[in-house]
Amino acid sequence: MSKQWLMHFEEGNQSLAGLLGGKGANLAEMTRAGLAVPPGFTITTEACRAYYLESRLPGGLFREVREAMTVLEVRKGQRFGDAAAPLLVSVRSGSVTSMPGMMDTILNLGLNDETVQGLAAATNNPRFAYDCYRRLIQMFGTVVFGIEGAWFEKKLHALKEAHAAHSDQSVTAEAWQELIGTYKSLILKRAGTAFPQDVYEQLHMAVEAVFRSWNNSRAQIYRRLNGIPDEQGTAVNIQAMVFGNLNEASGTGVVFTRNPSTGEGVLFGEYLTNAQGEDVVAGVRTPQPIAGLQQDMPAIYEQLVAMAGLLEKHYRDMQDIEFTIENGTLYMLQTRSGKRTAQAAMRIAVELVRAGILTREEALMRVEPSHLDQLLHPSLDESAAPAALGTGLPASPGAACGQAVFTADEAQEQARSGKAVILVRTETTPEDIHGVLAARGVLTSRGGMTSHAAVVARGMGKPCVCGCEALVIHAKQRRAVIGGQTIAEGDWLTIDGATGRVMIGEVPLKEADMSAELLEMLQWADDVRGMKVYANADNPEDAAKARSFGAEGVGLCRTEHMFLSPQRLPIVQKMILADTEAVRAEALGELLPMQRSDFAAIFRAMAGLPVTIRLLDPPLHEFLPNLEDLLTRHAHLSAARKERAASTPETDESPGIPAAANSNERSSGPVIRSDVSRESIPAGGRQSPESDLELQQLEALIRKVRGLHEVNPMLGQRGCRLGILFPEIYGMQIEAIFAAVQDCIRDGIEVSPEIMIPLVGHANELRIMRELVDQVAQKMLGDNRNAVPYRVGTMIEVPRAALTAPQIAAHADFFSFGTNDLTQMTFGYSRDDAEGKFLTHYVDNKLLPDNPFQVLDRDGVGQLIDLAVTRARALKPKLKTGVCGEHGGDPKSIRLCREMGLDYVSCSPYRVPIARIAAAQAEIEAAEAEKNSLAEQQKIVS
Ligand code: PEP
Ligand code: MG
């Protein structure tokens, strides 16, 4: 009768992992390759899915299991449940994508009060037989009946104490028998039912329990973290037992074919003699380093080395192998690709290429972008690190220093003013996302490796220490205490997300070293990829860093970031608040040399590579003080003034706060102080004529801030709309660019400036702005204008711009898709608020496949980009196109960009190497797909 729900090992192979799970497929593959694998069979993932549909084992499955058991019986010359020669089996989970330790396993199944005696007689070793039986009852109790393991451990401990046994090995057969009785009573008491003596009942219950373990909470969390689909299900492997705990010529262990921490090509692992599988992982006895096996059992060691080499060659990857030695015979119980550190991953991939096992393309395809993330983050300069005041969980790699802040809003506000901050919270919630985003690192006193803070920080590649219990936070008082020291808001902190350490002060950080293997791999990537990789850099340091990581240009220099430094902000405010053209011109005149030297330094750092400078983009109110703070201060000054007026009646009346309605003029109000903040509010009522003047200035400022207020600032007076209304601002920036170009040319430095106009939605906007650029170029460069190869282009951030791409392209040398704003406007989701409100819910509940601000939305935003590129290129085939939103550093989005034929992606400096690899992977995949489709076509033709 044909089988529907299971497959014997010799019937399967590696390619059937979807059906047999990784473990089942590999056991099948090893069996077919002739390695010593105990016989067995695999119940498929399809049966698991059917189990979840029907809430019971699917019809016919158990009949097939019984038949398959008969085959095992013949092979082993034993019978399941036969007291004379009992067959024992293991029942193990095995998912398609490896989920180490997340699901359940039962060993020694088939033992009962009778067969245990048979096993004792057959092996002439009652101690061994009863040891196996007590292990089975314990595993069965925890896995099938869900009794906490601690109950069993307690009884075991008590038994050992009562018998003065220091180790499991010194427990006698009689003592094990006593424990078996205790365990059985424990099950009866806690589960309300007896441990089953019918071996097929055991098997039935065990298979069901393994299926159930697919949905235990740790497996669910692991799947969510690793993007493993819930509907995959697990397979169940039923395999004849071999016993590492039979005698001193037996043992069990785990080896990696290479060192998983460093990647060094030596066998790495541990083993225990006279022990069963779980002992190695459970830490009951300390395992020996695998090198010891060479002395203990030299012939077995030789065999193991040979098998490891064979398996690595066969699977063309570093393997993690479980083995058992039964009375001098070596068996393979499992092989899978071994988990490894980022550093090891690079070394292993490069060495496998050198050994001729992998091609360069295959090695590139194996690189996990998240691995690179770990390799590229700064780490602590250990020579300068003080003792940690507390340690939490190392939740997201990299070290970070910053000033402590206790709320997400504060983190955002401080970061906006250019400060490095560490967000310190008891735990984070989705509402804190903007704070996590703004902070250099995150520290929480509660929560584990899968807490919100940990998951989010890892997703962002941001250092994070979670669950630091030594930290007591008093958020209301804006302070925390750790190791007896108080951290107030603004105090410097350093966290190390790789080890979990928390230190007070600003500990120097070391930039990541790019290992020789990583550099080699990146070189291979560059040889393969077609798409260029630029960086988003707003200052010379970031530009230099980006170049050291291999950036081939600056794809976005956000010039507003140059306006935010404490020295410049007052001048910017003076420019915004200028009463007259003359005052504005004066302020712009002060800013120009600063911008000029910024631009020149970036040009120098990029040494002739393209530098895309975006003219001012955000709404002007972002440079002014917060209205609420101003009003608080006003209330304070007015109250004090009234108090003074009561004691000196001749004082003038306060002019009062101007109404919002009559404050709409474009440029009114005096030049003001910029340091209005809660801290500067005086404590009491002694006022002077100077404070009257301050009050008047404050009121003018309030009028101005209200005048600039917009209900929807992100859809308001920003981007090129500013340039059109205030051409003198863009004019100054353009002049600074060309002045910097001249400075560099004078010093013999090549430059390739690209001037980028933001937020264009209509071709006329770009036309006017381009005219402005050309006019200033003419003024600055005169007859030399044609000798400086500058380009003018635009960001495509508004859906209308994408839809009218050909008209806009008529005035553009390049398009840079600002996918942050384009996503915001296409979805109608606020990029500042959506994640903290509904978007996380959408993603968690699979309404959306991904967060569209992280992964480019193929169907909507992608379609707009594709359409814009295709239509614009029909008019201007050489139009340069790229992406400079956050998506430029996301591997999945990079693949889509390659597919749509973009010329470059631009991302933050630290993501440049990731983008280089991802661009190469996209190229390799595309070539592979083309090859396959050609082969397909040929098949059809022939
Ligand atoms: C964008 O919108 O994608 C972009 C790069 O600009 P910004 O993030 O500065 O708005
Ligand atoms: Mg934008």
Strand and helix layout:
Elements: E1 6-8, H1 17-32, E2 40-43, H2 45-54, H3 61-76, E3 89-95, E4 105-109, H4 115-123, H5 126-143, H6 149-162, H7 173-191, H8 199-213, H9 217-226, E5 234-240, E6 251-256, E7 268-273, H10 278-282, E8 288-289, H11 291-296, H12 298-315, E9 319-326, E10 329-337, H13 342-354, H14 360-366, H15 369-376, E11 379-380, E12 390-391, E13 393-396, E14 399-405, H16 408-416, E15 421-425, H17 433-438, E16 441-444, H18 452-460, E17 464-466, E18 471-474, E19 479-482, E20 485-488, E21 492-496, E22 501-504, E23 509-510, H19 516-528, E24 532-536, H20 540-548, E25 554-558, H21 569-577, H22 581-606, E26 610-614, H23 627-647, H24 689-708, H25 720-725, H26 727-746, E27 752-757, H27 763-781, E28 791-796, H28 799-803, H29 805-809, E29 814-817, H30 819-827, H31 834-844, H32 858-875, E30 880-883, H33 891-899, E31 904-907, H34 912-941
Parallel strand pairs: 14-15, 15-16, 16-17, 24-25, 24-31, 25-26, 26-27, 27-28, 28-29, 29-30, 30-31
Antiparallel strand pairs: 1-2, 2-5, 3-4, 3-5, 6-7, 6-9, 7-8, 9-10, 11-23, 12-22, 13-17, 14-21, 18-19, 19-20, 21-22
Helix pairs in contact: 4-5, 5-7, 6-7, 13-14, 13-19, 14-19, 15-34, 19-34, 20-22, 21-22, 22-26, 23-24, 26-27, 33-34
Characterization of the model:
It is a single chain. By secondary structure, the chain is α/β, with parallel strands linked by helices. It has 34 helices and 31 strands. It has an 8-stranded mixed sheet with strand order 12-22-21-14-15-16-17-13. An 8-stranded parallel beta barrel has the order 24-25-26-27-28-29-30-31, surrounded by 6 helices. Strand 14 (399-405), helix 16 and strand 15 (421-425) form a beta-alpha-beta unit. Helix 5 packs parallel to helix 7 (173-191), helix 15 (369-376) packs antiparallel against helix 34 and helix 19 (516-528) crosses helix 34 (912-941). It starts with 5 loop residues before the first strand and ends with a helix. Phosphoenolpyruvate binds at residues 556, 558, 617, 797, 818-821, 884-885.
